[in-house]
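hey so u asked for the seq, here:
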Amino acid sequence: MPRFLALPNNNPLSRLPGILLFCASVIMGLLCYKSYGIGWDEPIQRMAGTLTYDYVFNGDHAIKTYAERDLGTGFELLLVIIERKCHISDSRHIYLMRHLVTHLFFLVSVFCGYLLALRLFKDQKIACLAFVMLAFMPRLYAHSFFNSKDIPFLSAFLIAMLVSQIAFEKNKPLWYLLLGLVCGYATSIRAMGIILVPLMGFLLFLDLSKSIYLKEKILPAIINTLLFLTGFCVLLYVAWPILWDSPIIRFKEQFASLAHIAWNGSVLFKGEMIPATALPYSYLPVWISITVPEVWLAAGIAGFVWVSVGFVRRPLQHLANTQERNFILYAGCFALPLIVVNVLHSTNFDDWRHLYFVYPAFVMLALFAINRLLYSMAKIVVWSVCGLQVLFVAFFMLRNHPHQEVYFNNLVSHDKEYLRKNYDLDYWSCANKQGLEYILANDTAAQINVAGRLETIWNAQLIIPWDKRWRITAVKEGVPADYFITTFREHPADYPYTNIFYEVRVLNSTVLRIYKLHR
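ran it, C-alpha cells below
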C-alpha cells in the first residue's frame, strides 16, 4: 500500500485520493456540462424558485397561488439568487449555470460519501470505490446536470448521512445541531426529507434509553435531541419561505401533495401504457433492478440481507452506538421510503427518480457486502469483478454521452428497439437539444419549422445560442413543418413518416428521431 494511503485518518493527506477523484470529476463536469439539454420540468422548477425569490425579496405573494407551489424550493432559491446576483439574463447562460451548480453540489455530496465510506471501513480502496459508485452511476450522472430537484435532494440526504455518522460517533452537541440543519435543508428541497426525523430520532431515543438503563446523566442525550430538532425546524423554516406564514399547516399541505402528485399522465412499463395513478407495486423494484449496474445491484442486495440477518441475530449489539448501527440506519434509509410510498399509494413515474435519494444508502450496504467478501474470498477476484463493472459503466458513459440517463443493465434485453417499446427512455426530452443543433448545422434555411411536443422544443431552444435560436419555430404536430422531432414519450411506436433525417440510439433503441417532412 502506498505510504500516503496509510496515514492517520485525521491527517488531511489521508483524504488525498478522494480529493484527486473530486478534482478530476470537477474537470470532467466543466468539460461536458454544456452538452446536456433541458429537462421537461426544469423551467417549472426555475419558476418556483423565481416566485419564491420575489416573495422573499420583493414581497410578492404569487408563489402562494402558483400551481406547483408544493415544490420544495431550498435549492431552487439558491439557483435563482445566483442568477440574480450575477445578473445572468440570457436563457442559455441561466440554464448552463443551473446545470453546473447542480452538478457541483452533487460532486460535493459524493466527496462526503467518500469521507463516510473512509470513516466506516478505514480503507482507501473501498472509499474510492464509493466515490466511483456514487458519481458515475450513469443515470444519476446525467441527472446531476438537468435535474434540480431529485439530485439536490439525494445530495443533501447523502451529506446528512455523513454528518449523522460523525455526530453519533463524536457525541458532541454542535454536531447534532448541524445534523438537524442538514436534515432540515434536505426537507426544504423535497418534503420526503421528513423521513430523516424518525430515523435520526430513533437513534437519539436509543442513546437516551441507554443512558437511563446505565444510570448515566440523561441531560446530554436530551440536549442533543433538542438541538437536532431545533436545527431541523429552523433551517426547514428559513429555506422554504412558503412555510413562513403558517409552518405546520403549509408543511402538511406540501407533504400531502407530495404523497399524491396530481399527474394524470401514463408511463410505459413492460410494454404497456399504464396510468401513473395505477402502477403495480413492482414498478419501483423493477426499475431499480434494471438500471443499477449489475455488480452494485447484487452487492447492495447482499449487503441489505447481511445487515438484516445480523440485526435479527444480535439486535442489541447492532443497536448500540457502534459502526454496525450505521448500517441498520442505511437499511432503513433504503427500505423505509419504498414502504412509505407503497403504504401511501403515492403516484410514481419517470423510472425511480423520485427515490433516487435511497441510492447512497444502497451503496453503503453494497460496500458492506464487498468489504465482508474481501475477508472471505480471494481479494483479487472481488476487486477484479468491481473493476470490470467500473470499466463497463465507463465504456457505456463515454460511448453514449450525453445520454447516460438512458442506461439499462444486462438484466433487461438490449435487442433492437426492445427498450423503446417497453420502457420510458428520454422521458424529459433532453435529447431535443442535440436534435435542434443537428438541424441548425445541416439546414441553411433562415426559418425552420419544427413540429412535435411544443414544451420540449421550447425547452431545447432555451439552451441554444441566441444567434441560432431564432431560426427555429416550434409548431404543433399536424401543422405544416420542415421537421418532426420526437423522443417517443407516450408514443413508443414508429410514426407514419418515412424520411429519417437524424436519430440517436442507445443500447440498440432509438432515443431521439427527427423526420424530414415534405411540405
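Residues 1-8 have pLDDT under 50 and may be disordered. The two ends are 68 Å apart (CA to CA).
lmk if thats what u needed
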